[in-house]
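Look over both lines:
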Amino acid sequence: MTSTNGSSTHSPVETAAVVAHGRIDVEDAVERVRAVAERAGVELVDEPESAQLAVAVGGDGTILRTLARLLGTEVPVIGVNFGRVGFLASIAPERLEDDLARVFAGEYRTIEQPTLEAQLRSLAGSATGEAGDARPKSGEDFVAVNDVVATSSTLGRMIELGWAIAGEDLGVVSCDGMICSTPSGSTAYNLSNGGPVLVRGLDAMAITFIAPHSLDARPLVVPRGAELIVRNATADVVAAVLVDGQRAGDLAPERALSIRLGEQRSLLATLPETTFFRRYRETFTS
């Protein structure tokens, strides 16, 4: 049904669900979606998990939250942009009726995007050991569609983060934090901090430091199978761990944060002509 390069064929949509942004007035847009669905003979259901396709009406945040909600359901999400950026959206407001009718007729692609699996756990050994020697015990597990961030929980205080990749220690960096992002999340917080943009279809994650106090703390693109382990090397400052923008826990010196590419995939639906490079040009270079 799907592939990482987005080549796929679909039968006409029979059931769909509408997911709207709670803080943006999109009632008129939702009614427009309902009207298109009625004309196309598409049944709108209340629960997106039971639909063939989910239509997210809002900005990138709405699309990402819908993608996260539908992980593991095989329900793709197509976005109608009523946000400020809408990089993940495929349908512009002025094209809603025409483009959504095409989508309901089966004229769309489904792109698989990797997720991140993160574990926040206690260290088996000394809290002052090297990041590469950290052996996390059982703890809290999270899945991110967008990114996982470790950042200082004290305003105005930098932290020192030890990090290791694939078991190899890479030292300690003084910074405001670190971002680990998926291709979906690479155009969000990661990009605003000078991180690399990952093209859709890449099975990789980007690691970018926030305001590093070092000239050699460069962003990295890491392939599947290479696990990142982060530890807080600052004894008097706790690092907050954010998963898709929501605080998920704290990274104290006696704890480790491990991040790797997950097995689950988010499913982003797009119009056939709405390629990554077209959206990149329209959003970031015009």
Q: What stands out?
A: The longest strand covers residues 255-270. The two ends are 34 Å apart (CA to CA). The mean pLDDT is 89.
